[in-house]
Sequence to fold (215 residues):
Amino acid sequence: MPARLLIFGRQGAGKGTQSERLSAHYGAPHISTGDMLRAAVAAGTPLGIEAKAVMDGGGLVGDDIILGVVAERLSEPDVQSGGFLLDGFPRTVVQAEGMAKFATVDCAIDLAVPEDVVLERMSARRVCSSCGRVYSTAMPPVNDWACDNCGADVVQRADDTPEAIAKRLAAYNTETQPTIDFYEAAGLLVRVDGLGSPDEVTGRVIAAIDARLSR
Fold:
């Protein structure tokens, strides 16, 4: 039976790594809000055209458009046959309530990593300015901050400064934490310790999901 999963976690909690692994393990497409919006814009769908107009004007895409784009994506054949792993959606309780009208969720995963650890991880993060490959001050590229993959400069993103990270963490606590609470109240949440090696975390997450799906 296809797994229909959501993954939550503060930036720096390791969602990207775990999402790739979970998608491969369960055969469920890994879908992010950004990917969905870009695909809708590129395809020129009515919702994509509407979203592009908002973004080109510097505005934030509203819940009605985002929910419409999500509904379209979740109706596609790969999702119907393989389920989904949604990353970065829903961000708010309004979005969670809206999605409940057209999609069933089997399990919501909360990767629990303390804020001080996230701050340390994100402050140490470095990113290739061209291909986006991620490094850290503890695990730098081989050749003097030139990307191992493409040779471009590896830099610290402007939004990875301590001040910018603190703002994102505050926004997460204000907007996303109530959404996590929403799924906990619905009995769908599994909270997993996000500390440790990627392999250790993956093992814990899969065990928690399988226990939830077997109920």
